[in-house]
Amino acid sequence: MARARLNSGNPTEQELPKAKITKDSLKNAAILLKYMKPYRLKFGFGLLFLLLSTIAFLFIPKEMGSLIDSATNSIKRETLNNINEIALLLVGILCVQAFFSFFRILWFVEVAEKTLASIRKDTYFKLITLSMDFFSRRRVGELNSRISADLSQIQDSITTTFSEFLRQIIVLAGGVTALCLVSLKLTLMMLSIFPFLIAAAIFFGRFIRKISRKAQDKLAESNIIVEETLQGISSVKAFVNEAYEAVRYSNSIDKVVKYAMRGAKYRGGFVVFITMGLFGSIVAVIWYGSRMVQSGEITVGQLTQFILYSGFVGGAMGGFAELYAQLQKTLGATERVVELLKEHNEPISIVSAENSVKQHLKGDISFNNIHFNYPSRPEIGVLNDVSFTANAGERIAIVGPSGAGKSTIAQMVLRFYEPQKGQLLYDGKPSNNYSLTDIRNQIAIVPQDVLLFGGSIKENIAYGKIGASDEEIIEAAKGANAHNFIMTFPEGYDTLVGERGVKLSGGQRQRIAIARALLKNPVILILDEATSSLDSESERLVQEALEELMKNRTSIIIAHRLSTIREADKIVVIEKGKVIEVGNHNDLMLKDNGLYRYLSELQFEA
Ligand SMILES: Nc1ncnc2c1ncn2[C@@H]1O[C@H](COP(=O)(O)OP(=O)(O)OP(=O)(O)O)[C@@H](O)[C@H]1O
User: Fold this and answer.
1) Which residue CA neighbors atom 30 of ligand 1 most closely?
2) Residues with beta carbon inside 6 Å of ligand 1?
3) Which atom of ligand 1 is nearest to the CA of 408?
4) How confident is the model at residue 605 (pLDDT cuts 50, 70, 90)?
């Protein structure tokens, strides 16, 4: 049963998994219900209005029956009046019903929107303050779906499913009572057939949906073939594989037809069942009712009432299955959202004023016998007994083959992860003597792949210091050798970048990241050098900007091109998570069979 959506939620495109209704799943639902507490009064009034509008709704068939009876009983003058009066009463009932329904919908939507806004915000706040470990275990798509699909499902439930459930229960109880009042005999006859037929129709309907989903899946598979071949059309042509792809696609499409035909047979059967079974039974009830009219047991108006109430009751019974499924989906969604809300987050406040620097760093860093493995892969030791020191203002280069653990060291400095053994010291004090915000606020990173957010260049630079003035931003851009290229755009600093904006080159993006870091004015700087090389002019501009950035700060440079680190105060060479050489360029070049010397010579030859 498709229901119109009343709120702002996205239509849930994917089928959400259902959860069993258990004590635990209900407990989770109760946790989210707490978010509704501030709006409970409005919700209560919504429920009251729901009750009143449904009761008014239940009177409509009764008065319609009376209307017909007053027309058929006699054609006396007062009856005519009676018809008008009953019609007026009906209009009155409709008005009352409309009035209650309007406010019920308004209030339910308001409660759902406001409740969901709080849950959405809390979920998002939770997500952005979770540890990096959490993100390395989850896929972004999955987390995205919690914020969109799962929360929309919950929102839908507050606005529609829950109230529909209550409404159907009232309609069912009221409808059956009204049916009994009209004729107990006819009601018993109807109730002995209809519930079974409706149950069979639901069961059959579900079965058919399952089969048609299979056909849809197969169709999606064949669409993937089209997508793949079109994306790789040059490969298809170069290998003259048109014939191969044609066969692959034909086979896939034939499968679609096979499943669709299987579904068609059941679909046809379903129509036969509905026509013969359901409508046949309706004919039977009306036939029986008509005979009762003929024998004077009931009036035509009462038979009309009976038919209308039967429709209500049948509709309510049929709707329950879908509502139950929706309820299960909501419990599933609730479970996933609550699970996320219960995750441990990093001690970082989402109120910026609370994150101001309290303990200032000088810039000494020291790794003391650090052992580390990523919590998601505990069997692989990534850092083994790593020790080195960086004094305030020094340039330390970390060098080593791919996968040696260089970026991991950078992440440890940022305290994205904690070591399993050993100690990380800042200014000679253990890292946990400082708050996370104090440390991260005084470190800036220029990453390998610079991600620019959708927005203007100005906003992207200001990400290093929220609220920076235009002058500060321009000064940082000048220091980063970015000002000149920014000014070549007609809109200058207001030029939009990111997915929907101007595409900047690798070197330009790096200079924006450098400007961002300059604006942050950190004590410690981490440079994760880009692996892809820039052209020599771009390289010169970036290098110049980096020189400016590194002045008077402790810099940790993850170097891929060894030519850029000759001037480093210290070069730490790591291999398979172990420090194997430490020294400056000249020291390390003197080492026979040294890894640094080997790598240097390799790059020089290249
Ligand atoms: N989030 C993560 N979860 C699990 N393992 C990881 C994670 N990040 C990195 N690793 C693993 O840790 C090891 C060290 O990776 P790291 O990125 O520190 O190496 P690297 O020296 O910086 O390499 P490259 O020069 O290629 O960037 C690798 O084996 C890598 O597969």
Assistant:
1) 403
2) 136, 374, 376-377, 382, 400, 402-408
3) 18
4) low
Using alpha carbons, list the distances in angstroms from residue 22 to 30, 184, 256.
12, 38, 38
Q: Give 568-587 as a DSSP string.
A: -SEEEEEETTEEEEEE-HHH
**Which residue's C-alpha comes closest to atom 12 of ligand 1?**
382
Residue nearest to ligand 1 atom 6, measured at CA:
374
577 Cα to the center of ligand 1, angstroms = 10
Question: 592: how many CB neighbours lie within 10 A of its CB?
Answer: 5
Fill in the amino acid letter for 245: E
Measured on CA atoms in the order 516, 518, 521, 523, is the torsion positive or negative? positive
Could you tell me what percent of the chain has a pLDDT over 90? 46
Ligand 1 site-directed mutation target among 376, 382, 420, 575, most atoms within 8 Å of CB: 382
Tokens of 366: 């020291």
Which helix (H) or strand (E) covers residue 137, if one does? helix 132-137
Long-range pairs for 18-24: beta carbons < 8 A, 24 or more residues apart: 18/325, 18/328, 18/329, 18/331, 18/332, 19/328, 19/329, 19/331, 19/332, 19/334, 19/335, 20/328, 20/331, 21/327, 21/328, 21/331
Pairing outcome for strands 496-497 and 455-456: antiparallel
State the SS3 of 293-361.
HHCCCCCHHHHHHHHHHHHHHHHHHHHHHHHHHHHHHHHHHHHHHHHHHHCCECCCCCCHHHHCCCCCC
Complex ipTM value: 0.97
Out of 139, 374, 531, mutate this one to test ligand 1's pocket (max ligand atoms within 8 Å of CB): namely 374
Are 528 and 446 in contact, with CB atoms under 8 Å apart? Answer: yes
Kindly state the average pLDDT of the residues 69-77.
63
354: Cα separation from own chain's centroid: 28
Which one, of 493, 427, 428, lies nearest residue 462 by Cα? 493
Query: Which pLDDT belongs to residue 567?
Result: 84
Whether residue 211 contacts residue 331, with contact meaning beta carbons closer than 8 Å, is answered with no
Q: What atom in ligand 1 is closest to the CA of residue 574?
A: 21
Atom of ligand 1 nearest to the CA of 136: 1
pLDDT at 303 over 50: yes
- Quote the pTM value: 0.78
Distances (CA, A) of 319 to 26, 82, 462, 512: 22, 36, 54, 57
Q: Tell me which amino acid residue 160 is.
A: T
Distance, CA of 485 to CA of 570 (rounded, Å): 34
